[in-house]
Each structure stands twice: as structure tokens, then as C-alpha cells.
Amino acid sequence: MLEILYQDDYLIAINKPSGLLVYKSYYAGPADEYAVEKLANQIGRKVHLVHRLDRKTSGVLLFAFDKETLKLLSNQFMNREVEKKYLTILRGWTKEEETIDYELTNENEIVQNAITYYRRLQISEIDLPFLKHPTSRYSLVEAIPETGRFHQLRKHFKHILHPILGCRKYGCNKQNKLWLHTFN
User: For residue 87, how many other CB atoms are within 10 A of its CB?
Assistant: First the structure.
């Protein structure tokens, strides 16, 4: 059962768990269930997806109950009137804050501008050796994408050499294996 965070006559917000696909997608591959269908079945009415979250991303996912509300909310996202914030743990100690302005190439090989602002909230160093280092360092950051490109945060943090912890595609697989073997 999906956790409902907010609901009124026009929209509903859920807490999407990591691992749940939002909708059927050729790029994401098959899945047993999708957030759109699962929510519609749970509440017994049709819902319209307002925005996306990656399969691995957990967080607030917004749906509209009618097409007029969908259009209004979609326009707010398109006009960047909605500020999206993400908390993530990065490998290494980042700068206190930074704007990453780094173009990304989409699946059709089209170069698109992409901008992400982040600020470091906390740093941590643990007694867990990694490669030539006697300890492992991490940063908890709040990331605010100004644009909304596919895997933007993952690609941007890899670009500045502070990949997201646990990200298999753009992260540090040696670091991921270290955590898996240490805590599994």
C-alpha cells in the first residue's frame, strides 16, 4: 500500500518508495507494478501523473485527479515555478555549495543544458578503509536541479567526482561493494 501524504478534491501526493517504477517505460524495462496503476487501484479512481521520479529515487510523487488540474500543475513544473529538492549522500567531502552547469546528452544524442545547485548539509568520516585511504568520507547534500534532465543529479555528481552512494550506473561500484560487504 502506498503512503498518501496529501489529498484533496484535485490532487494527491504519495511517498514513492525506491524501486517502484512510476509508469511503463521502454527504457526502464519490465516491472511487476507501477505507481500510477497501484495508486489508482488503491484509491479506486483514475489519476494523472504530474511529474516523474527515477525508479531508484524515493520521494513525493504528485498526481492530479482531472486533466484541468494536470494542465495547471504541469505548467507550473514546465515554467519552473516548482522547486524540487533532493537529499543524497555523496562520496567524498564536497564544497560547501556549488552550481554545476554541465551539459548532458540525451538518448537521441542531443546536447541539453543542465544546471544543478547543491549545498552541503553535513560531512562524515568513518573508520572504513577504502582503496589507499584509511577512512571513508561522505557528504550529505541538498540538491536542487534547475533543469530536469534524465539522470541529471547522478550524472552531475559523477562529473564533479562525488558520485551518489549506491548508484550503480553513475556511482563508484567499488564503494558500493564496500558497503554491501561491510553491512550485509
Answer: 10
Helices (H), 28-131: 35-43, 67-78
Determine how β-strand 97-101 pairs with β-strand 115-126: antiparallel
From residue 135, give the alpha-carbon distance in Å to each of 31, 88, 91, 171.
38, 20, 12, 18
**What cell was used for 133?**
585511504
Other beta carbons less than 10 A from residue 18's beta carbon: 12
For the annotated catalytic residues, the residue numbers are 54
For residue range 165-184, list pLDDT tens digits in order. 887 777 766 666 666 655 55
CATH number of the domain to which 175 belongs: 3.30.2350.10
Query: How many angstroms separate the CA atoms of 139 and 96, rounded?
Result: 10
Helix count and strand count (H, E) for the chain: 4, 10
User: For 78-104, what is each residue's pLDDT tens digit?
Assistant: 898 999 999 999 999 999 999 999 999
Q: Amino acid identity of 86?
A: Y
Domain housing 108? 86-183
